[in-house]
Design a protein that fits this description.
There is one protein chain. It is globular, with a radius of gyration of 22 Å. Strands 3-2-1-4-5-6-18-19 form an eight-stranded mixed beta sheet. The protein has a seven-stranded mixed beta sheet with strand order 11-10-9-12-13-15-14, with helices on both faces. A two-stranded antiparallel sheet has the order 7-8. It has helices at about 25, 45-50, 60-65, 75-80, 100-105, 130-145, 175-185, 200-205, 230-250, 270-275, 320-335, 350-355, 365-370; strands at about 1-5, 30-35, 55, 65-70, 85-90, 110-115, 155, 160, 165-170, 190-195, 210, 250-255, 280-285, 300-305, 305-310, 340, 340-345, 355-360, 360-365. The protein has 13 helices and 19 strands. The protein is of the alpha/beta class. Helix content is about 30%, strand content about 15%. The structure holds nicotinamide-adenine-dinucleotide. Nicotinamide-adenine-dinucleotide binds near residues 130, 172, 227 and 255.
Length: about 375
């Protein structure tokens, strides 16, 4: 069975779905690995390194591969080159993505979307969402630090004492916790808030303060550990209570998301106006519409003296390590699907069924199907 690694073609994408050090994991399982020339170059992995580890280079991997490992959803042209009955594993952004999914279904490709893996213990080595959020949380702090007209740490110098920057993190999930840790390592004073009270201890263990807001969040978390949506009245109160934390901050990093929904707006223009000039907001929820009312996805906006950054695809800006982690995620998932050198699907297994979007020419994932109507 041939596993193909095409070069990513989406604009700005620098990651690759397989790194050389993991080629051996696949060949060791009896699979042949074909890599498109230049596939890993933007991430720092040269063709020769793949070949040295046992892969072959091929100019048309899509046409030859039984299993295609990708980062971004394939384009119409890429789908047109894939073998019918091939298996595709990637970050397919499946919700509402009718064009791609219908084309894959028409091509009879079996498609797995890494975003849909259940977040169960067995799936941890395959958890691409967490891996990519880790990179985003880290990079968000560096972006903020490079735009802030202040230093992060407390510095006592002959020219006087510089007070540390104050960072407020909204949403202490995977990205938020990484942002907290990174900001602390740079020497900032960090405060954070999340609707899930369960994360208070994790926030404190990183040396940050958990903002205690007088909000009732008893039923904030679902079985999978994700936040549940709150009422508009709740968000109104949250904005009101968080006003103090935001006005006191030099940097605000927002990561608040509720799965399958538009991001809640937690920072209004008025709240931005209340911040000190020069302050920076990095809105990691930009791809889902943003947590700040002024966020323009993919752009930097400067208003009321405050810079609001709405980055898209931050993991691609750290392509070496993002690819390394993602490659571990996809190869672990592929190893789960392969038995005796072939993909064999056990649809009774939630780890197989959870991320399965298209099977035998049909879109089979219920929530994804509902999002296409
Ligand atoms: P996410 O990206 O969906 O959300 C980011 C954070 O925003 C979450 O912590 C959420 O509680 C928070 N949030 C939502 N609305 C908010 C609001 N109004 N104000 C403040 N914060 C708000 O979540 P994620 O980071 O991908 O994961 C969240 C949790 O899922 C983890 O912390 C963990 O408990 C669980 N998880 C479990 C596994 C596993 O393998 N078992 C793996 C990854 C994550």
């Amino acid at each position: 069975m041939i596993v193909g690694i095409p070069k990513e073609t989406a604009a700005g994408e620098r990651r690759v779905a397989l790194v050389p050090e993991l080629v051996g994991k696949l060949t060791g399982a009896g699979l042949e690995v074909l890599v498109e020339p230049g596939a890993g170059e933007a991430a720092g992995f040269l063709d020769a390194a793949y070949v040295e580890k046992g892969a072959r280079l091929d100019g048309d991997v899509l046409a030859r591969a039984d299993v295609v490992l990708k980062v971004q959803p394939p384009s119409a042209a890429e789908i047109g080159r894939m073998k019918p009955d091939a298996t595709l594993i990637g970050l397919l952004s499946p919700y509402g993505n009718a064009t791609t999914l219908n084309a894959l279904a028409a091509r009879k490709v079996t498609a797995f979307s890494m975003e849909l893996l259940p977040r169960i213990t067995r799936a941890q080595p395959m958890d691409a969402l967490s891996a990519m959020s880790t990179v985003s949380g880290y990079k968000a702090v560096l972006m903020a630090a490079s735009r802030l007209p202040k230093v992060f740490p407390l510095l006592m110098t002959a020219a006087g004492t510089l007070t540390p920057a104050r960072v407020f993190v909204i949403g202490a999930g995977v990205a938020g916790l990484q942002a907290i840790g990174t900001a602390r390592r740079l020497g900032a004073v960090v405060e954070a808030y999340d609707t899930r009270p369960a994360v208070k201890e994790q926030v404190e263990s990183l040396g940050a303060k958990f903002a205690e807001l007088p909000l009732q969040t008893a039923d904030a978390q679902d079985k999978g550990g994700y936040a549940k949506a709150q009422s508009e009245e709740f968000y109104r109160k949250q904005r009101e209570f968080m006003g103090r934390c935001i006005a006191a901050a030099d940097v605000v990093i927002t990561t608040a998301l509720v799965p399958g929904q538009k991001a809640p707006v937690l920072i209004t223009e008025e709240m931005v106006q209340g911040m000190r000039p020069g302050s920076v907001i990095v809105d990691l929820a930009a791809e889902q519409g943003g947590n700040c009312a002024l966020t323009q996805p993919g752009q930097d906006v400067v208003k009321h003296g405050v810079t609001v950054i709405g980055p898209l695809n931050l993991p691609s800006s750290v392509p070496f390590h993002a690819s390394q982690m993602y490659a571990r995620n996809v190869t672990s998932f592929l190893a789960h699907l392969v038995k005796d050198g072939r993909v064999q699907l056990d649809l009774a297994d939630e780890l197989t069924k959870g991320p399965l979007v298209i099977h035998q020419g049909e879109i089979v994932h219920e929530a994804v199907k509902a999002s296409l109507k």
